[in-house]
Specification:
Arc Repressor Mutant, subunit A; globular; Four Helix Bundle (Hemerythrin (Met), subunit A); 217 residues
């Protein structure tokens, strides 16, 4: 990703977005120190802007401040990742049900196309691409749901465990399991069956929790 935002980003929101993307993409790894002076030099903004952006990410659970050591990317334990996914289960169920109620024909066609791309990636063994396609499919479902409050909460929770999810997608056999689960979610949405869509979403997240809890997650 670009290592500077100075040409366009002159305020906290843009720096916050840049830092969030750097963390969720793995450019900044868990435990890595985020030195304000280095970020000021890198991004071409004031120290106050960097500090405010870091404070916002602390509130989002992506960054933590250590007394006398400054800020660092927060490590999320497996136990915490499971707890976060349990919260997501309820929200994703709601989102899937709402998508079944509100999705347009065009949106359903996009969801089916997304599943096809995911299937192709799994067959080709393109697991990094598959992980990115999972994220895209979830975004499509949230857009179709027209429930922005739940969508915002999910995105905040998901950002904290993105590295756990990425590692899961690389585990042998896991992509096939998650593909089946997400295919079931899309099929229920396409059938415009809110109850089935909610159950499929909960079942899929339950399998994620099981995988996270297994040794080596």
């Amino acid at each position: 990703m670009e290592s500077t935002v100075s040409s366009e980003a002159t305020g906290r929101p843009a720096v916050q977005v840049w830092l969030r993307e750097a963390i969720t993409s793995g450019e900044f790894v868990p435990g890595q120190r985020l030195i304000e002076a280095d970020l000021v030099s890198l991004l071409g903004v004031s120290r106050n802007v960097v500090r405010l952006a870091l404070d916002a990410l602390v509130a989002d659970g992506l960054v933590e401040r250590i007394p006398n050591r400054g800020a660092r990317v927060r490590r999320v334990s497996t136990a915490e990742a499971v707890a976060i996914t349990e919260c997501r289960m309820a929200l994703e169920g709601l989102i899937a049900a709402k998508a079944a109620q509100h999705a347009t024909d065009a949106e359903i066609a996009e969801l089916h196309a997304g599943v096809r791309r995911m299937r192709e990636a799994v067959r080709a063994g393109e697991l990094v691409r598959y992980s990115a396609l999972i994220h895209e499919l979830h975004q499509l479902i949230r857009q179709a749901a027209r429930q922005p409050t739940a969508a915002a909460l999910i995105e905040r929770l998901q950002a904290q465990i993105v590295r756990h999810q990425f590692r899961l997608s690389l585990r042998p056999g896991r992509p096939q399991v998650s593909l089946a689960g997400l295919t079931a979610v899309v099929s229920a949405i396409a059938a415009r069956d809110p109850e089935a869509a909610e159950m499929a979403a909960r079942t899929h997240l339950s399998s994620v929790i099981t995988a996270l809890s297994e040794k080596g997650a």
